[in-house]
Amino acid sequence: QVQLVESGGGLVQAGGSLRLSCAASGSIFSINAVGWYRQAPGGLRELVAAATSGGSTNYADSVKGRFTIARDNAKNTVYLQMNSLKPEDTAVYYCNARIKTTRFIVDDYWGQGTQVTVSS
Q1: Closest residue by Cα to residue 113 from 57, 26, 45, 54
Q2: Angle at 26 between CA 52 and CA 37, to 5 degrees
Q3: Whole-angstrom Cα distance, residue 97 to residue 17?
Q4: Strand, coil or helix: 87
Q5: 79: closest CA among 3, 28, 7, 2?
Q6: CA distance 36 to 78
Q7: Residue-wise DSSP of 9-26
């Protein structure tokens, strides 16, 4: 089985920074694409940032220039560095990874979610 564990959320003032971490463990053969999603109260889950194993990245227009996604392949960990935070960034953040297991089955896995609250 594969598990994704998130950490790094919390309460921060507008203009501050946070770094989210998502560590994958279990019967992993390889990790393909990874991404961060968020869901605000009463809203839909939206893609914030994504990265392929080849290094290509994509960001939502609302976070370009402020957020950075990065991978540490040796640690099977993906990070989301969030700078210049705004109250509208308040949401539950979820990591996602497309993983091939040692049984050679490919599937998408989700973290448990971590709350980010930005006060004004």
Answers
A1: 45
A2: 40
A3: 24
A4: helix
A5: 7
A6: 9
A7: -EEEETT--EEEEEEEEE
Per-residue tokens: 45: 């889950």
Tokens of 10: 């919390």
Structure-block tokens of residue 24:
């994958």
Tens digit of pLDDT per residue, the chain (120 long)?
Answer: 899 999 999 999 999 999 999 999 999 999 999 999 999 999 999 999 999 888 899 999 999 999 999 999 899 999 999 999 999 999 999 999 999 999 999 999 999 999 999 999
Report the pLDDT value the prediction gives residue 118, as an integer from 0 to 100.
Answer: 98
Reading the block at residue 90, the tokens are 């308040």
Q: Which amino acid type is present at position 113?
A: G
Beta partners for 41? Answer: none
Residues 6+ apart with CB under 8 A from 107: 98, 99, 101
- Give the Å distances, CA to CA, from 23 to 6, 7, 40, 55, 88: 7, 9, 23, 18, 26
**CA angle at residue 74 from 72 to 76, to 5 degrees?**
65
3-state secondary structure of 17: coil
